[in-house]
Amino acid sequence: MTTNRPLIIRRMGLRDYEPVWRAMQTFTSERQDETPDELWVLSHLPVFTQGQAGKPEHLLAPGDIPVVQIDRGGQVTYHGPGQLVIYLLLDVRRAGLGVRELVSLIEQAIIDTLSAVRIEARTRSGAPGVYVDDAKIAALGLRIRRGCSYHGLSLNIAMDMEPFARINPCGYQGLAVTQVADFVKDTEPSEMMVTMEKILLQQLLPQLDQYSWIDVRQEFE
After folding, report:
1. pLDDT tens digit sequence for 112-149
2. Nearest-5° Cα angle at 204, 102 to 202
3. Which terms are listed as keywords in the entry (predicted)?
4. Cβ atoms 70, 150 nearer than 8 A
5. Long-range pairs for 204-211 at CB < 8 Å and ≥24 separation?
6. 5-212 placed in CATH 3.40.50.720
7. Closest by Cα among 141, 126, 124 to 176
8. Residue-wise pLDDT tens digits, 160-185
9. Residues known to be catalytic
10. Can you tell me whether residue 132 is helix, strand or coil?
């Protein structure tokens, strides 16, 4: 018999990257069998994050933007204001959820979110994330420790895209990067952020609901 488990949503606003990353590590290291799963919803101040296997040659000209070497998979990416980030702190072993399955449901939630605002998006074989035509609009990066996931997804919504030109995004030279604001016009960036966050959570939660994380509680810091 399946037991319903709570899923806590924490909306954290605009945050420095490293303290949030360290908090994810601590949460994952200290969680117990009965610890509820959580989604952390936020944006970051400008930062480049370099994955475990990240190659320095993909950092072309970081300039005044800090670079943080972290413990997720993948290469380098950029986070900044106007980008929606959701970290998934889930006990995947307890849920019987495979990593590839988790990646697929995240990607599908993003695709369905973009479809809701008439943006046709897709995945690309061998390159995690979501694309519009040949341009990347959302990135994924996960770490599994002790059977639990952390890190998550980032969706470009209404941001300064210039820093992406300072790197080879996700390790791909010349990879084009796009955002929701390139397709949805006449909407204020702050309103667009609120709308896209609401839609993405609406798409993501039913995906997780099949694993019985159904008692959603919202906590604001």
Report:
1. 999 999 999 999 987 889 999 999 999 999 999 999 99
2. 175
3. Acyltransferase, Cytoplasm, Transferase
4. no
5. 204/39, 204/86, 204/105, 204/106, 204/109, 205/7, 207/105, 207/106, 207/108, 207/109, 208/7, 208/90, 208/105, 211/95, 211/96, 211/97
6. no
7. 124
8. 999 999 998 887 788 899 999 999 98
9. 170
10. strand
